[in-house]
C-alpha cells in the first residue's frame, strides 16, 4: 500500500483582470467626479460676500471723505477674503479634493496676480487724487482674476468674470459719483447671483 504524499496547499485563484480594470475605472470615475464638482469658487461664500458688499456700499455712501470711503471698502475686502478662504476650504473638504493641488492651485495662481496689481495701483493712484477711477479699476481687475482663474473651472466662472469686467468698464466711463453704486452692482448683486448659480449647480 503506497503512502500518500503530502497534501498540496491550494493556491488562491488569481483575481480576474477584468475585476482589476473595473476597480481602477471606478476609482478614476469617482475621482474625476469629485474634481469636477470642485470649482475652486465657493458658491455660498460668494453669496455671503455679496451681501457684505451691499452693506459696505451703503456704509461707504455715507462717508464724507475719500479716506473714510477707502477704509470702508478695504475693511470689506478683508471680510471677503476671510469668508472666501473659509468657504473654499470647506468646499474642498466636502469634495474630498486637496485645497492646494489640482484645480485649486491652478485657480489661485491665475486669480491672485490681478488682485496684487489692483492693490499696487490703489497705493499709487489714491494718494495722487485718482480715487474716482478705483471702482472701475477694482471691478475690471477682479473680473480679470475671475476670468483667468475660471479657465481651470466650470464655464459659469469665466462668464461671471466677464460680467465684472463689463461693469468695471461702465464705471470707468460714468460719472465719478456713480462709482459706489457700480461697486454695489458688481461686488454685491453679481456675487449674490453667481453665488447662487454655483452653489445650486456645483455644490457649496
What structural keywords apply?
7 helices; mainly alpha; 74% helix; 204 residues
Structure description:
The chain has 204 residues and is mainly α. The chain has one domain. It has 7 helices and no strands. The longest helix is centred in the middle third of the chain and has 30 residues.
What is the compact description of this entry?
This protein is an all-alpha fold. It has one domain.
The oligomeric state is single chain
Radius of gyration: 26 Å
Described by strand count, sense and barrel closure, the largest sheet is: none
Class derived from helix and strand content: mainly alpha
Question: Which consecutive residue ranges, at least 5 long each, have pLDDT under 50?
Answer: 27-37
> β content, as a range?
under 5%
Count every beta strand, where a strand is a DSSP E run of 2 or more residues: 0
What number is the mean pLDDT? 82
Question: Order of helices and strands, N to C?
Answer: HHHHHHH
Taken from the alpha-carbon principal axes, the silhouette is globular
Amino acid at each position: 500500500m503506497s503512502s500518500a504524499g503530502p497534501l498540496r496547499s491550494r493556491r488562491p485563484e488569481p483575481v480576474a483582470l477584468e475585476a482589476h480594470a473595473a476597480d481602477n475605472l471606478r476609482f478614476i470615475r469617482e475621482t474625476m467626479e469629485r474634481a469636477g464638482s470642485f470649482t475652486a469658487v465657493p458658491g455660498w461664500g460668494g453669496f455671503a460676500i455679496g451681501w457684505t458688499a451691499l452693506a459696505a456700499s451703503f456704509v461707504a455712501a455715507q462717508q464724507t471723505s475719500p479716506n473714510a470711503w477707502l477704509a470702508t471698502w478695504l475693511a470689506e475686502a478683508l471680510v471677503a477674503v476671510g469668508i472666501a478662504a473659509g468657504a473654499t476650504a470647506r468646499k474642498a473638504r466636502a469634495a474630498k479634493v486637496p485645497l492646494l493641488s489640482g484645480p485649486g492651485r491652478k485657480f489661485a495662481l491665475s486669480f491672485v496676480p490681478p488682485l496684487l496689481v489692483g492693490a499696487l495701483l490703489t497705493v499709487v493712484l489714491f494718494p495722487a487724487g485718482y480715487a474716482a477711477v478705483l471702482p472701475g479699476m477694482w471691478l475690471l481687475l477682479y473680473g480679470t482674476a475671475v476670468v483667468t482663474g475660471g479657465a481651470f473651472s466650470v464655464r459659469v466662472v469665466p462668464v461671471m468674470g466677464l460680467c465684472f469686467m463689463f461693469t468695471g468698464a461702465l464705471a470707468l466711463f460714468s460719472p465719478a459719483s456713480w462709482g459706489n453704486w457700480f461697486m454695489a452692482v458688481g461686488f454685491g448683486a453679481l456675487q449674490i447671483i453667481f453665488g447662487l448659480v454655483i452653489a445650486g449647480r456645483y455644490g457649496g
